[in-house]
Specification:
The chain is an alpha+beta fold and about 200 residues long. The protein has one domain: PAS domain (Beta-Lactamase), CATH 3.30.450. It is built from 6 helices and 5 strands. A hairpin with a 2-residue loop joins strand 4 and strand 5. Helix 1 runs antiparallel to helix 5 and helix 5 packs antiparallel against helix 6. The longest helix has 29 residues. It starts with a helix and ends in a 6-residue tail after the last helix. About 30% of the residues are buried.
Length: about 200
């Protein structure tokens, strides 16, 4: 299972925008975005993949917030912030988001969960945070990291086989891991979509 397939299994049913990028702090590139992110930005995944997320920035994007974001990425620290981005149509929209770095299988990634804000929200761009957005971002990255590590470990074991044919027990193990991750992803989705107390 590749990273995009795994991300799809975890985030496709979530109603909030999620995007994953490579872990290069100087030039992160989009690996995957769920349907909610595509809908918010008006960009299909094919046009997002391989691009730097700064493709969404524009005149109203708060440069101080972006500078703080870059510092967090360089230091591999979580980031929380709020600013304006731009849809494909050129329309500006206000969002808050949280980015969490993580590593799995010798690879570095960033995962961001975003939430579009109502136009009437008057809180300061640089200080607005949402504990729920932060918590679910950490939950998603922890689950993805663990799942990816399991798959990569299993594949590394399979690659050591001398024969081109996989042993029956290894195939069974792979199917069990796949089913376990799929079930866990479903459970995580149910948990994240639960009603939140006011």
């Amino acid at each position: 299972m590749n990273t995009e397939t795994l991300f799809f299994s975890i985030t496709s049913a979530l109603p909030f925008p999620v995007v994953a990028t490579t872990g290069d702090p100087g030039d992160p590139r989009i690996l995957y975005a769920n349907e909610a992110f595509e809908s918010m930005t008006e960009y299909p995944l094919d046009e997002l993949r391989g691009n730097n997320p700064n493709m969404l920035q524009g005149e109203m994007t708060n440069r101080e917030v972006i500078d703080r974001l870059k510092n967090c990425l360089r230091e591999r620290k979580p980031f929380e912030g709020c600013t304006y981005n731009y849809r494909k149509s050129g329309e500006a929209y206000r969002l808050k988001w949280c980015i969490v770095p993580f590593s799995a299988g010798g690879q570095d990634f960033y995962v961001a969960v975003q939430q579009e804000l109502n136009a009437g929200n008057s809180k300061d761009d640089a200080t607005l945070t949402d504990a729920y957005v932060v918590t679910l971002t950490h939950n998603l990255t922890a689950f993805f990291r663990n799942s990816l590590s399991i798959y990569q470990h299993l594949h590394s074991l399979l690659r050591t086989e001398d024969s081109d044919e996989l042993p029956k027990e290894e195939i069974i193990n792979m199917l069990l891991v796949r089913d376990s991750v799929t079930l866990a992803a479903s459970n995580l989705t149910d948990y994240l979509l639960r009603p939140v107390a006011a």
